[in-house]
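Researcher: We're teaching a course module on how sequence relates to structure. For the next exercise, students receive a sequence and then see the predicted structure as tokens, so they can try to spot secondary structure elements on their own. Here is the exercise chain.
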Amino acid sequence: FGFNHSSYLQALLARLIWGALNGNIAIIKSFLGQITDHTNRSKGFSVLTFAWGFGAIIAPFIGGALANPSFLSDSQFINHFPYILPSLACLTLQLISGIVCLIFMIEPKQSQSLSNHNHNHNHNHNHLKQN
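Model: And here is the predicted structure for the students to work with:
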């Protein structure tokens, strides 16, 4: 959006497509379900809800503060592309998040309940073969 200054409709359409293709909340909830157990699952999902709400409150504030900044009013580049700073801030945060995830996120092992389910299924299947 930072380089788009020609059409509000074009920016709105791009944002609509971006939102329609963004399905990360289901993946996040699935990951949380795999890395938590009954003792800390409610805390994990509470943190997710808090972080999501906090982001929904603080992101527009940051975007608005960076749009048309008064301390760069003499810059021709900023005057031509007034929304480049919020876009670059968003890009920077997304790159940092992606790098942190690549470095520190570990693929969760198969959950114990799924292992028990598979074991019980195989045991029942073997028991049926014997009869």
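Model: If you want an answer key for the exercise: The longest helix spans residues 41-66. The radius of gyration is 23 Å.
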